[in-house]
Amino acid sequence: MRVGVLALQGDVSEHARVLREVGAEPVLVRTPEALEDVQALVLPGGESTTLGALMARCGLDQAIRRRAQEGMPVFGTCAGLILMARRASGGEPPLLGLMDVAVERNAYGRQRESFEDDLACPAVDPNPFRVAFIRAPVITGVGEGVQVLARHEGLPVLVQQGRLLGATFHPEITGYTGVHRYFCSLAASGGGRV
């Protein structure tokens, strides 16, 4: 399975490494043409405003929106989730508007307030797993079609809407592979063409 990683800015290599570990072929996506060759797409963490501007400059925003509407699975972590959200506070409006969630940027604080913690998510793994929250957004609202898969201190941190998956945390930073494996199962169930 060919899974794209938006490769404009952010933790691209970390996602590519984890995708390889779960048996997918990572493809670095920098153009709308490259997007056509993948079955699913990961939007990495980074700086959401910068990512959004770079995506819009090369037309990837429209291409990603179209492919997602056609059923391509998309997984956004941290800034990637901000780009996918329908509503966001604390900066520019979200670019893609794919998921019916509202987020608040950098709600966990500055870089020095970043932390790791164990997360319970039975849909992904029967055992708790380690993840990193790095200048993470907070999900402040979810629509009716959004399923909350995991919470941290009462707040939603992993959400799913059909074949769209969004995380406020970084599983790729700690090397945990289960969330990516779960995402690839969404793609394998007929989520994308190619």
Q: Helix segment count?
A: 7
CATH class: Alpha Beta
Give the SSE string: EHEHEHHEHEEEEEEEEHH
Mean pLDDT: 90
State the distance separating the first and last CA atoms: 9 Å
CATH architecture: 3-Layer(aba) Sandwich
Count of spatially separate domains = 1
Low-confidence stretches: none
Number of strands: 12
Share in β-strands: 25-35%
The radius of gyration over CA amounts to 15 Å
CATH homologous superfamily placement: Class I glutamine amidotransferase (GATase) domain
Biggest sheet overview: 7 strands, mixed
Give structural notes.
The chain has 194 residues and is of the alpha/beta class. The chain has one domain: Class I glutamine amidotransferase (GATase) domain (Rossmann fold, 3-Layer(aba) Sandwich). Strands 2-1-3-4-12-11-10 form a seven-stranded mixed beta sheet. It has a three-stranded mixed beta sheet with strand order 5-6-9. A two-stranded antiparallel sheet has the order 7-8. The longest helix is centred in the last third of the chain and has 14 residues. It is globular, with a radius of gyration of 15 Å. The mean pLDDT is 90.
Briefly say what this structure is.
The protein has helices at 12-21, 32-35, 48-58, 60-69, 79-84, 171-174, 178-191; strands at 2-6, 25-29, 40-43, 74-77, 85-89, 99-104, 115-121, 125-133, 138-142, 147-152, 155-161, 164-167.
Attribute tags:
single chain; 194 residues; alpha/beta; Rossmann fold; seven-stranded mixed sheet; three-stranded mixed sheet; 7 helices; 12 strands
Give the helix/strand layout.
Blueprint: E1 2-6, H1 12-21, E2 25-29, H2 32-35, E3 40-43, H3 48-58, H4 60-69, E4 74-77, H5 79-84, E5 85-89, E6 99-104, E7 115-121, E8 125-133, E9 138-142, E10 147-152, E11 155-161, E12 164-167, H6 171-174, H7 178-191
Parallel strand pairs: 1-2, 1-3, 3-4, 4-12, 5-6
Antiparallel strand pairs: 6-9, 7-8, 10-11, 11-12
